[in-house]
Write a structure and sequence with these properties.
heterodimer; A: about 270 residues; Rossmann fold; four-stranded parallel beta sheet; about 50% helix; globular; B: about 290 residues; alpha/beta; about 30% strand
Chain lengths: ~270, ~290
């Protein structure tokens, strides 16, 4: 059977070192994180707080009028446990400023607007707090493209992007995440009753094992079927990965010159530091 | 004879040779104070690792007159040094090189022979391959240097062994990868395993100096090691962070181990050569044909 378990001590040490290194190399000591009260953003806060200290970690709570009250409660639980700084900035007025202009707007459009409003608030707080935005996207959602481009995916550094959701849960548990956050079903909380697994049509436990074979172990789709996954499920996931690849790359630039950003102008971000 | 080796498991500033040089001088001063005879820096220690388009701007000739090497050569009057740098050859090809400096001389330069260009690696895009694997004399006996991917292949350490090296000086900037439920990354486990194996197989000292720190999302795991000719671990630097790690090598261990286990005496290099000639000859004839 596919085993995606990780050594959480090692993950914790490498990730906290990464956060410290990348933020101090940018000439800063602080970080801001959009905290929903869910698993991913809570873990991002825990790791950042451990890396930089609670006084240098700002959790930004950005509820919309339809957000579950539980979310705020769970976020507060985590803030109190870690002793990190926090601020609450409701996005209802700014989001509704746009949403109200289109009475027939569907849920997906509204969800995308909320995610992008939160990005605006977060980057504004980044300037005020003098800290980088630390991301909360995990490997499962990055590979599936289950994310709003320039919304929840926007960040300066991402400590969680190489951990599948089930691995992230394992790390969260090892780091002492409040049980109530560990136990609740994952949701983007963009509308009432929304759950990730309901929307995706499969569970993280299932898809993480499949992704591990496809991505990490370089199995072909046919080999995944041989390993026991249904052909329909494999096809659906493979097509989803391909279709959403645009969310994982910078916009392509039309090449004209001898040297073009993205093709042959190659430097790490840490250049010179 | 005793040899006190220090491993400079450093982090680097990406593309800033002057700041890295300053760290080299600082580590050398500390190592001298602690009585070390030889200080080994990791791969590309003067430049950082993921250089990409910075390669031409940090390159230098392996020339004693080069101002950076000149400073290190001054230090080499008090302590032998292995340093990593981008070397530009006379025809302007760029190499990942390691230089052995001693008593104000560049005793040897090794140009990385195997440039990993797969997975997260892109060295073949930016660098030229070295074409030599040679041991060289030091004041502690005959030594050989290899850089990272060079010793993921079995043949370069074997060649150094046959060329007389008793002291293997390996350098790396090894990005950690392969997180599983094991307490070590799969890269860490593999590098430690092969270094220990080379020490035992070649009944020699195997020294490995690895990088620490991060470059963007890449993490260099440190954990530098020295194994003795019995394949026993003499010292290991901590994982993940910078360290200066010292160990005293009793070079007479070569005598004792090889008295017990004469693998070098019994090695049949001519047989290897005959079989290689045959294999390469056969392959040359069958190239492009279905077998």
């Amino acid at each position: 059977m596919v085993n995606v378990e990780i050594n959480t001590d090692l993950a914790r040490e490498i990730i906290t070192g990464f956060i410290r290194s990348e933020i101090t190399r940018a000439g800063l000591q602080r970080a801001v994180i959009g905290l929903s009260g869910g698993l991913d953003s809570s873990l991002s806060c825990m790791l950042t707080s451990e890396a930089l200290g609670p006084e240098n970690t700002l959790a930004v709570l950005m509820p919309y009028k339809t957000s579950s009250p539980d979310s705020l409660e769970h976020a507060q639980l985590l803030i109190d446990q870690l002793g990190i700084q926090s601020i609450t900035i409701p996005i209802t007025p700014m989001a509704d400023g746009l949403i109200d202009q289109f009475p027939d707007m569907d849920q997906v459009r509204r969800g995308n607007i909320m995610a992008r409003m939160r990005m605006i608030v977060l980057y504004d707080q980044s300037k005020v707090f003098n800290g980088l935005v630390v991301g909360t996207s995990n490997k499962t959602e990055i590979i599936l493209g289950y994310t709003t481009l320039y919304g929840d995916s926007a960040c300066a550094i991402n400590p969680l992007g190489d951990l599948y959701k089930t691995q992230l849960r394992q790390l969260a548990k090892a780091m002492g995440m409040p049980q109530v956050i560990l136990d609740k079903p994952p949701t983007a909380d963009l509308w009432a009753g929304q759950t990730d697994e309901g929307e995706l049509g499969f569970t993280y436990a299932e898809v993480d094992k499949l992704l591990y074979l496809l991505v990490d172990e370089r199995y072909s789709p046919a080999e995944c079927v041989e390993a026991g996954f249904s052909l329909e499920f494999v096809d659906k996931v493979v097509e989803r990965i391909r279709r959403n690849h645009f969310k994982r790359v910078l916009p392509p630039i039309a090449k004209l010159s001898n040297r073009t950003v993205g093709y042959d102008f190659l430097y790490l971000r840490d250049w010179g530091t | 004879m005793k040899l006190k080796i220090a491993l400079a498991q450093i982090n680097t500033v990406l593309g800033n040779v002057q700041r890295n040089l300053a760290k080299h001088l600082d580590y050398a001063e500390q190592a001298v104070k602690q009585g070390a005879d030889l200080l080994v820096f990791p791969e590309l220690s003067l430049t950082g690792y993921v250089l990409q388009d910075l390669v031409p701007s940090v390159a230098r000739h392996a020339d004693p007159a080069d101002p950076v090497l000149a400073k290190l050569l001054d230090v080499s009057q008090s302590i032998d040094l292995v340093v990593g740098f981008v070397e530009e050859d006379v025809r302007n090809r760029f190499h990942i090189s390691a230089a052995y400096l001693s008593d104000h001389k560049i005793l040897h330069v090794h140009r990385k022979v195997y440039l990993p260009t797969y997975g997260l690696f892109d060295e073949g895009r930016f660098f030229a391959e070295g074409d030599r694997v040679q041991a060289f004399h030091t004041r502690f006996g005959r030594a050989g240097m290899l850089i990272c991917e060079d010793f993921w292949h079995a043949s370069p350490p074997y060649l150094l062994w046959l060329d007389g090296a008793d002291l293997f000086l390996f350098t790396s900037a090894s990005p950690g990868r392969g997180l599983t439920s094991d307490p070590k990354l799969s890269t860490t486990r593999w590098v430690e395993t092969i270094n220990q194996a080379y020490a035992g197989l070649f009944t020699s000292f195997v020294v490995h100096s690895n990088r620490a720190g991060y470059e963007d999302g890449l993490h260099f795991w440190g954990g530098s090691t020295i194994f003795n000719p019995n394949g026993e671990l003499l010292c290991q630097a901590p994982y993940h962070r910078e360290a200066l790690c010292l160990a005293e090598l009793d070079l007479n261990q070569l005598h004792r181990t090889r008295a017990r286990l004469p693998l070098l005496r019994d090695e049949r290099a001519m047989l290897v050569q005959r079989e290689l000639d045959r294999i390469l000859d056969v392959n040359a004839h069958t190239l492009g044909k279905e077998t």
